[in-house]
Amino acid sequence: MIEFIENYRISGKIICQTGLHIGGSSDTLGIGGSDSPVILDRIQKVPIIPGSSLKGKMRSALELKYSGLWLDKSEGKVHTCKEPGCNLCTTFGRGATERVMAGPTRLIVRDAMPDAVTKEAWKDKDGISHGTEIKGENFLNRITSMATPRFIERVPAGSAFDFEMIFTIYSPEDQDRLKLVLEAMSILEDSYLGGSGSRGYGKIAFADIVIARKDPDSYREGRDWEPLTKAEGETTARGILASL
Ligand SMILES: [Zn+2]
């Protein structure tokens, strides 16, 4: 039975603990140039973290952790299945062609925008243009040992982005799927966001997390989000998960 029960809003900051290199991660492109652009918001001309890439990374973090459950069946491809009770697909979505009576995808991930402090800091820092810096790196050819210089465009370490996700409860089982989202966030902190993660880029932390709720009455009566967790309480993904 699919029936709207309530919405949860998970919001907070994504802190870039190392430089964040968003966009293509190909190591095979030609010499020079900046071939891995961070995605720029067209209106504000600042880098953003696309909700789709954040959501994709959270999903693949879970696929790898529960590889016996979700990775083996998928032959290395993104897992998608017709199992109505599949927690991963129900939470993160199925391919458009999969017709499953599981209701709408539970999780929406918005684009994360740099916060006001970060935008101010970018303005005053040398070598930063539109929130990114260019860093030269040498890539060694494993066979010839020839070094190829490449330039990586990255968001500097210390930058903070405001993130927001909406998780909708349609059935009692969805409460556990909300925990899956927090678990994905927690695993992602030990992985990376964007390209070149194996070279140290993209280490992030979710901070200042607050979960708030709205039920059908809140919408009908025009009430605001009602905090479920408090800013002065647990604000990390791990901490909230342990307290749920
Ligand atoms: Zn599935």
From TrEMBL:
<dbReference type="GO" id="GO:0016787">
    <property type="term" value="F:hydrolase activity"/>
</dbReference>
<comment type="similarity">
    <text>Belongs to the CRISPR-associated Csm3 family.</text>
</comment>
<feature type="domain" description="CRISPR type III-associated protein">
    <location>
        <begin position="14"/>
        <end position="204"/>
    </location>
</feature>
<dbReference type="Pfam" id="PF03787">
    <property type="entry name" value="RAMPs"/>
</dbReference>
<keyword id="KW-0378">Hydrolase</keyword>
<dbReference type="GO" id="GO:0004519">
    <property type="term" value="F:endonuclease activity"/>
</dbReference>
<keyword id="KW-0540">Nuclease</keyword>
<dbReference type="GO" id="GO:0003723">
    <property type="term" value="F:RNA binding"/>
</dbReference>
<dbReference type="InterPro" id="IPR052216">
    <property type="entry name" value="CRISPR_Csm3_endoribonuclease"/>
</dbReference>
<dbReference type="InterPro" id="IPR013412">
    <property type="entry name" value="CRISPR-assoc_RAMP_Csm3"/>
</dbReference>
<keyword id="KW-0051">Antiviral defense</keyword>
<protein>
    <recommendedName>
        <fullName>CRISPR system Cms endoribonuclease Csm3</fullName>
    </recommendedName>
</protein>
<dbReference type="InterPro" id="IPR005537">
    <property type="entry name" value="RAMP_III_fam"/>
</dbReference>
<keyword id="KW-0255">Endonuclease</keyword>
<keyword id="KW-0694">RNA-binding</keyword>
<dbReference type="GO" id="GO:0051607">
    <property type="term" value="P:defense response to virus"/>
</dbReference>
